[in-house]
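Let us work through a complete example step by step.
Step 1: write down the sequence.
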Amino acid sequence: MSSRARAPRLYLITDRQATGGRPLPEVVAAALRGIRGLASGDVAVQLREKDLEGGALAAMARALRSVTADAGAALYINDRIDVALAVGADGVHLGGGSLDAVTAAGIAGDLAIGVSVHGPAEVAALRAAAGDRVAFAQLGPIHDTPSKRRYGAPLRIAAITEASRAGIPIVAVGGINPGNVRALRAAGAHGVACIRAAMTASDPAAVVTAFCQELSDFRKMDSV
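Step 2: predict the structure and record it as tokens.
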């Protein structure tokens, strides 16, 4: 995939603790086999295993680089620019404890940059500070979800509409499932992110296919 990958329509975020003991690369590979109706590069995977040290994270990243490349999906590494560069990932994802986007851009080379934000004001500030160097902002939590409760009350859909005015593609996260994709897209979300919906599924491919169906149907409606 080319450098500075575009903002994803579907962003799969890993959690190896949620796979029921199944190896993470196998779950991700199964999920990506469900891609239907989206263009190459519309699906991306974020390796987000914050407890792994550098060597173990790089080994996992190399395994996922192979899996994502085979599926035509982009690979982002959470926080670790060094690991992203070392394994030939497409991008790096910056969270609250990461380097700021401006500093990261100075050392990330051609890596695309995604940034987690928790309100529309953060998106506007990101736009002002980092300009076009940020590929997308991951905004959430939109709906209630256990993994995001520490970030406060859900923002709800109206926050997407406000945040999208800044001109950075918005990827909605938090309590996302195929059934709420169209409402999120109608509110202005460029794409959606999911963790547990795919990681915990007994059939990850079916979940991804369901997401793709909703995303591709909305795109067709949008182009009419």
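Step 3: interpret the result. Residues 10-223 form a domain with the TIM Barrel fold (CATH 3.20.20.70).
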